Target: histidine kinase
Amino acid sequence: MGDDDRMADDTAPRRSFRPGAWPPRIGPWLWDRRHQCADWALAVGLFPIWAVAAAGLPDGPLDTLANRVGDVGTTVEATLLWMAIMFGCATAVSLATLFRRSRPAILLTVAAALALGFGTSPPIALALYSYASWFIHRRLSLAVWTAVMVLSVIWIYAYPGDEDGGGAAGLVWATALVGFMVIAFPLTAGLWVGTRRQLVDNLHERAERLEREQYLLAEQAITGERTRIAREMHDIVAHRVSLMVLHAGGLEVSAPDTKTGEAAGLIRTTGREALAELREILGVLRSSDDAEPPTAPQPVLADLPRLVGQWRAAGMPVELRTTGTPRALPPRLERTAYRMVQEALTNAGKHAPGCPVTVRLGYGRRDLEIVVANDPLPDTAPITEPPPASGYGLAGLRERIALVGGTLSAGSFPDGGWQVRAMVPVDAEADEDGGAAQ
Model:
């Protein structure tokens, strides 16, 4: 090996100490399999105890049978028989321990069989504890198995072949002591552990549910804010840019010199590109038409003359009419009415440039009527390409009108004109509150 190879080996990072390598991951791997590891530890660690318990006193029917079989053969044969019984019983309990969480009936059956056949009671404690701690909802099955284990303990000390079970007092005390040690205490501990585990799981589930709900609320807030931004951009920026494009178009047509016309044309082209980019941005921000947007602030009906004046200055003949008795309305309703007129005028400027437009506000006793209508384009009008549209104008208007409880309709006249009409209910008490607020 050359010097370069030796240097490469010395400087190369060792596999076992790299971040994310096997040693740091052994902890999570063991934690995910902690229950299986615990069952294996119990199966191996308690194996000697099960073997000793199978060979201990008191005896059961199978013990008596084994003694008789052993008496017939030699001492070696008897010893081998008892070793087979000890290790067979211990193996059965250890194997059943591995399934105590998935199939508890196996361990319960083995424990009951050893108690009835060999007088071995310790496996009862593990079986009842496991069932009570991991299957807390199966109360009826737990009661049945508990009764079986109680009868098994009574049978152990009432078996006629048991030499220590002669007296009634001794039987009662032995049964009570063993019953407490292998039935009452494990059953109580298992129920407590199972209830605590269930409580912890419920708390974890509740915390996860609250976290999901918080995430959904955050998503709703983000969606609402995105829709609000898209709406404000459409109502304010698109309106202003449309005015700029119309002004630039009029200046380009009536420019006194070529240089001014070129500058106006450049402004008009730049404004159209800005509207096209704005349309793309609105498509990204506005995730769905069903998102609930907050109402927009600022302009009210008192600002309509200024809005109409801006469009008149752009070359659009606009007439503002008011019927009924004007009065102060709730600010939210006035903002909605202003936005509707603004959007309708923008649409008229795009699709019917130069045509007369009428804006009418009808103050009724219970409702407010808002109408924006434009005349049709004359046959001699030059064909021009309208500025790019975002596609959310009428959808946004319907949302705004619906938020204040009104209805909106839009359509064309037989002669080719266009009208946008909204009816918004006005509550008398709300009028008073709105007037006081203003």
